[in-house]
Fold these 3 entries.
Entry 1:
Amino acid sequence: MLERAPLFQGLSRAHLRRLAAASAVRRVRPGTELVKEGVPGSVFYVILTGTAKVTRNSRTLKRLGPDDFFGEMAVLTKEPRTATVVAETPMECLTLTAAGLRTAMGRDPSIAVRLLSTLADRLAGLDRRFDV
Ligand code: CMP
């Protein structure tokens, strides 16, 4: 499962095995709030199946689906969650703790580069929304 996610592509077998040992699979029903805007959080999610809606101040920012990830911002910045993410369908997500994600990024900088590129896009998007 890990191997299929673009975020983890190109990782060695040994690294994938260590990553699998550090992660868990969370299955949720539609309507489940996975992360909540303004609340601190230390779990990072990669969507395996299903879709979720990202909202901020009750406005929809984005829909996320398989292979997308979320929760990286609070995990990397240690600031509260920037948005709320709610399951729209039944979902299966791979979860990693902050420590697990940091270890994975340290072992394989390509994970960090992919994460940072998405993080930068999302931060730019949040900035634009607040430009008046
Ligand atoms: P975090 O702030 O930890 O929790 C909410 C998550 O929503 C955030 O991390 C990102 O993963 C995600 N998110 C925030 N803004 C956007 C956006 N513009 N597009 C997609 N996802 C976003």
Entry 2:
Amino acid sequence: MTTVGIDAIEIRTGKLQLDLAETFAPAQDEDPGKYTKGLGLHVSSFPDVYEDIVTMAANAAHRLMERKGLTPDDIGRIDVATESAFDNSKPVSTYVAGCLEQVYDDDFHHANKGERKFACIAGTQSLDDAYNWIRAGRNRGRKALVIATDTALYARDDPGEATQGAGAVAMIVDENPDFVELSTDQGFGSADETDFLKPNQQFPSVDGKRSMKVYLARMREAMEDLERAGVDLHPDDFALIPFHTPFPGMVRKAAALGYRHVCRDTDVELTLAEEIGRQPRREEFKTQEQFFDAIEEYTDALTETERYEDWYADTIEPTLEIAREVGNWYTGSVHVARVAGLKHALEHDRDLTGAQLLVASYGSGAQAEIHAETVADGWKAEIEALNVDDQLDRRYDISFAEYERIHDVHNHDTDDYADVEELTTPSEEFVFDGWGRMGERKYRYVR
Ligand code: CAA
């Protein structure tokens, strides 16, 4: 059977950065350790005045198409996933296509365009849509362009302000992919939850602590569903496990839960039992509360074992390296985690060709999805072609006063754009260029 998956990937960060320990923590009168150690975040990316979800998406897609030698005629589908859309009718993919048509001779008039919404999981759902379209044989040899783009901003003084970020991930989905092959096995955990939502408002209403519990509960359901699909989730079978990463501290919790779950009744549990005992079983406790206390105690002991620490260092830690430097990119976050893990592998001479990845996506509201992927033959060349480090190094480091202005610029309820000077100079990229007569946003390519 022909394989289908991600052929190529590009990352585009917002061009500003807010240092959480040096700049944000003192202004909030907080200990920097809350950000760097507790949440696991050092820096958040922000969009400059002339950047937004469209420019970041179009700039990522443009570099990707140039690198792969593609023109609009090669693309049969453009799916954009976002939870930062500014229009309830016209999809972001039309704006992105409009941008790209400024720099190509042909157009996207025959591409099917859409926009996917389900909080942060929509990027993975868009990959699914593209996969299904190709598998169904409806692509006529053409490829899908899938883009996850967000400005993950919270209202000022919301606890979520510590976990902001801005960036886009563009992916080409195709037959016989060079980067990763997607599998047909998936597990879902989905429930009607009100932990994080934006009812006709730009900034989210968040119950932060509850959102963390819901993340873990849906992940557990998704694991159980994947096991029901017949997939054996032995922890040592996966080279990397990229998770949706709102902040690395969340992944620390999810990884411990996942490891404990999949080790139950395996050789790993037996070996660990000599050191920390067997995992608690519900039937051994009179009340649910006693059981939960015992599970928590076991999990704490588990995460301090050498076996767990080695597994975490190899399988999880590498996937967090970019997130620590950019914050939460919502729909793009899990796809950044995949890139970070593979980039780390390349830099440490770890050959992952043919290796299995377990990709754990999540969106508030809420749904988790877990699936396996196989690393394809061309992964090294794809990672080598990225310029992530260069983009991260070139970001302009904003002061707290600049942060306050930039946050206002990107607040849809204020019209401060005209009053604020850009902090970087655009070059060879798409930029926001003001509003048109019907309230549409306009863009131009700066040479
Ligand atoms: N040194 C070391 N650690 C410290 C510390 C210090 N000086 N000060 C605090 N910490 C630790 C805390 O103990 C805590 O760790 P644990 O959870 O392991 O105990 C961590 O730092 C964070 O501190 P707080 O709990 O005090 O932080 P907070 O209450 O101000 O906010 C938050 C944390 C709830 C995550 C908040 O940032 C938030 O609401 N974020 C947005 C929602 C979110 O990201 N939820 C994640 C799941 S939902 C999802 O994944 C979808 C999505 O993308 C939004």
Entry 3:
Amino acid sequence: MKNKSLVSIDDLSTDEILKILDLAEEFEHDPVRKLLEGKVIATLFFEPSTRTRLSFESAVNRLGGKIVGFADASYSSVSKGETLKDTILTVNNYCDLIVMRHPIEGSARYASEIASVPVINAGDGANQHPTQTMLDLFSIRKTQGTLDNLNIFMVGDLKYGRTVHSLVMAMSRWNTTFNFIAPEELKMPDEFKLYLENLGLKYYEHNDFTEIISKADIIYMTRVQKERFSDPMEYEKVKNVYVLKNSMLKDTKQNMRVLHPLPRVNEIHIDVDNNPKAYYFEQALNGVYTRQAILCSLLGIKQP
Ligand code: CP
């Protein structure tokens, strides 16, 4: 895995994914170690972020590395007209690895092709978010005790949601049954349904999930992403179509867990937060351990 970029979840074999999850478990038990001493990680965020950027930075700090970068491209020379290519060719002189979030699909792949250091895609438009998927897999395995044969409900913005796109590709390796719940305008794109069909996997599409909620092992809620709509009226039509409320969870499986990549707007009512089945803030914490494991794996740093 050394010196490899992580742009799509399919850049990792199943064996590599499982090794990273096992390593993340070790970091969960012992997160403060000086494994990145002398390493510099660049975090280039061309789009806003709380969890991804800060959990990467927390991961690096806890491992004794240093961070350079920007949280807002308007403070970089991009605001003077510098191209992405020139930015990457410059920044890769200053660091050992680049973490990049960018609004344009394919930008992370492009950056990985010109950079001399590994590039981690921290989200490229509506395309992929592979490190989110790694922490989602970690959270699913931790709460369910397995990744095999689970029934996953994905709810909300399945069209523009990069987290669900990456997660579908990842979970397809473990004989998952997928239930996609979205309004007509935000359905799972055909390319991901075709991906599952080619693997012979089952998926079902619904407009509502109240009648079938008792079958879920994981309910993966997502935000309708206002920033991806060109017409504000289209966003207004769909923004509150699904709101998960505590009362809806009463007939769900004992071990079912509610996940959400966050940020949330209205799609999970705050009355769910104190339900033991709500797992989204622990899920965000798992981002630190999985990102520690990803950084060490891509930099070829072995455990002492
Ligand atoms: N889940 C996620 O990507 O959150 P942020 O946008 O806050 O990084």
